[in-house]
Amino acid sequence: MSCCGWCGTVVTPPISVSRLLTFDTHPDKLCTLCRNKMIVLSSCKRCSECCRIVQEITVCSDCLMWRSLYPKLSSGHTALYAYNERAKDIMTAFKLKGDCELAYLFSDDIRRALKIFPANTCFVPVPSAEESLSIRGFNPVELLLEAAGVNYDKALTASRDTGRQAKKNRKERLRTRQPFTLCPKRSKAIADKPVVIVDDVYTTGRTLYHALEAISPCQPSSLQTFSLFR
Amino acid sequence: MEKWINWLGRDQLQSELSPDLRDEMPSGLESRPAFVKEGSRYRCGRCGSICCLRQAYPCICKQHCYYCRECIQLGKVRACDRLISLPETGGFKPLEQPVLKWKGILSPQQEEASKDILQTVRQGGTRIVWAVTGAGKTEMLFEAVAEGLAEGKRVCIASPRIDVCLELSPRLQEAFDQVDMTTLYGGSGEVYRRTQLVIATTHQLLRFKEAFDVMIVDEIDAFPYYLNEALYYAAKKALVLGGSQIFLTATPDRQMLKAIRSGRIDATILPARYHKHPLPVPEARLLKGSLGHGLAGSCNASAHLLRLLQKKRRCLVFIPTILYMEILLPDFERQFKDWRFAWVHSKDPERKEKIQQMRQGELDFLLTTTILERGVTFADIDVIVVKADHAVYTEAALVQIAGRAGRSSAYPEGEVTFYCEHWTRPIKRSIRQIEAMNRTARKRGLLQ
User: Fold this and answer.
1) Distance between CA atoms of A71 and A89, rounded to whole angstroms?
2) B375: alpha, beta or left, given left = phi > 0 and alpha = psi -120 to 50?
3) Using an 8 Å Cβ cutoff, are A129 and A158 in contact?
4) How close is the nearest chain A Cα to the Cα of B53, in Å?
5) Contact, B221 vs B36, CB < 8 A?
6) What residue spans in chain A does CATH classification 3.40.50 cover?
7) Which CATH class is domain B283-443?
8) 3-state SS string over A11-53?
9) Which of A33, A135, A138 comes nearest B57 by C-beta?
């Protein structure tokens, strides 16, 4: 017997032979109801580049814009879930209220998703701005990775405070200036390795493209991005 | 000191203090660590729950700290923080007699309970008032509250449910029109102000420490047991040492029943409704040879519902979970397409409108999860419980559900039917409890 990590409903997972044989003591952390509220992007019609849900499988207009802006940085983006109302509620509780324990809600999903990348991949979390770090006390992306048991490389630092992204509208977000700088000590460790930049939510793509731009000078062998929500 | 007047009796985090308050710390300020170590465990100083985090997390103090998940809705309590409280000093504006403006008449049984409560307010201590659903609990508090206020005591009336608080507050303001009062609940948007009379959700009580001389908690049984412990903790923490606590309930839990029977707690029992008719006793119908998932149960229940609807009765149909409701809905929509009905559950944004429609008679029946088990009154309805053997139906829940029927004095009758595949303890006990209350009421001559 365990409780749903989000709504607290007591769930009794069904006993199956495979679970008994593998001693799998960590069944789904969400109850069926909450699980049904999460939209798995890999089962949706989505933009082949940024995983946004679209009517027809093509490259969405946003990604075409990014391609023209950053012709060399065209990356593949992987996202797990749609950023719907439920996902927003979870992120509010996690980031704004500061309920760090929620990082474990998706630890299994993240671990599974990041296993696909080669073993020598460097996972680089998007850094928090100094201001939000002093209010929250933690970097949500780093916590998500720690909970998933993934080693990460803090190759980026937030050098300039550009204000909270969540408080801006789309236009203001897109106009944000480059906030990240490459950490010189780390740049050698990354060179010639595949790099995946990890963020919690992909909204406009602005943050992740800034991160890509900042990390590209150290010439990783491949460059991709990953986010929990899109 | 002027600035701190609002914070008398409050219990708050040091990190939440505004800078101008921090500059001028008054004497008598109590400061204690936010977390108390008990052996190898940590206990939150604000809500009293044991910290059950997997690990300590990075914190604003640049270290790794534990925090409390239970009361995070009221702001994060970090282990590196401190809780600040200032003892309540009283000194409220004297009131003119009569304090109580309410001019209703109490029934003999209410009169008796009112006297008991008054005595507890005078002497201090704890009293449980066990009153059946629809006994008229609020009115019998008035006299005791009036006396407490007249003596300059600080009084709080709390309930676990926001709906109850919002319903109580205008009634009390009317009854005590010269008393300054506030209603506190999550998301009210109001800035806290210190008043003599406070109406609050039990959650908000966590923000007080030794503030109230009289603490009245309505519907203490609204939560399952493990949450109840936090509620008692909150009620006790907010109470001045030696103050009086009054707990109101329609369905005391096992532990409380034991305490009442053994006489460890003073108790007042009101076994009859205000309108002096007996409580409707539920009838449990056992279904044999069902399909395992209980769909057969709902078939039988829907046939019964159809019969009732044809007799021009209006019904409340209880369904254990939202998931189950989603499974059953297509069946209901097919079978009852000629009838007006709606469904509500806790996550339904239109729930208020639907309940209002049901109340005005615009709907023939309403499908609901346990959210309508208490607090709502519909005149002249019958109640059907589908799958009454489901784990969500505790003894208290079933008694409350049965208590939805026959509430108004114009229509004191109502039919309550439980459909189940097995006899469960809650089913048996709830029926037994209702019958026992009716018996007691008859013995005391409280029924017509």
Assistant:
1) 35
2) left
3) yes
4) 7
5) no
6) 38-229
7) alpha beta
8) ECCCCCHHHHHHCCCCCCCCCHHHHHHCCEHHHCCECCCCCCE
9) A138
Q: Among the CATH numbers 3.40.50.300, 3.40.50.2300, 1.10.3720.10, 3.40.718.10, which is that of B108-270?
A: 3.40.50.300
Range B179-203 average pLDDT: 89
Query: Which among A32, A99, A138 is the nearest to B58, CB-wise?
Result: A138
Read off the pLDDT of residues B203-218 as tens digits, 9 standing for 90 and up. 899 999 999 999 999 8
Q: Is the peptide bond before B98 cis (omega within 30 degrees of 0)?
A: yes
What gap in Å lies between CA B220 and CA B205, rounded to an integer? 13
Interface-testing mutation among B15, B70, B72, with chain A (most A C-beta atoms within 10 A): B72
Domain A38-229 is of which CATH architecture?
A: 3-Layer(aba) Sandwich (3.40)
Residue range B335-386, pLDDT digits in tens: 888 889 998 887 788 888 888 888 888 899 999 988 888 777 788 899 999 8
Q: Is the ipTM of this complex over 0.90?
A: no
Q: Do A138 and B322 touch (CB under 8 A)?
A: no
Q: Kindly list the distances between the CA atom of residue B408 and the CA atoms of A4, B138, B305, B367, in Å, as whole numbers in the listed order.
A: 40, 16, 22, 21
- Per the CB < 8 A criterion, the answer to whether B208 and B237 are in contact is yes
Say what the pLDDT of residue A187 is.
80
Q: Which of A72-81, B172-181, B395-404 has the lowest mean pLDDT?
A: A72-81
Task: Decide if pLDDT at B299 tops 70.
Answer: no
Residue with tokens 């009289």: B214
Query: Is B417 a residue whose pLDDT tops 50?
Result: yes
Following DSSP, what letter does each residue of B180-194 receive, concatenated? -EEEE-TT--PPP--
For A71, the token pair is: 């012709």
Chain A window 85-104: which residues touch B at a Cβ cutoff of 8 Å? 93, 97-101, 104
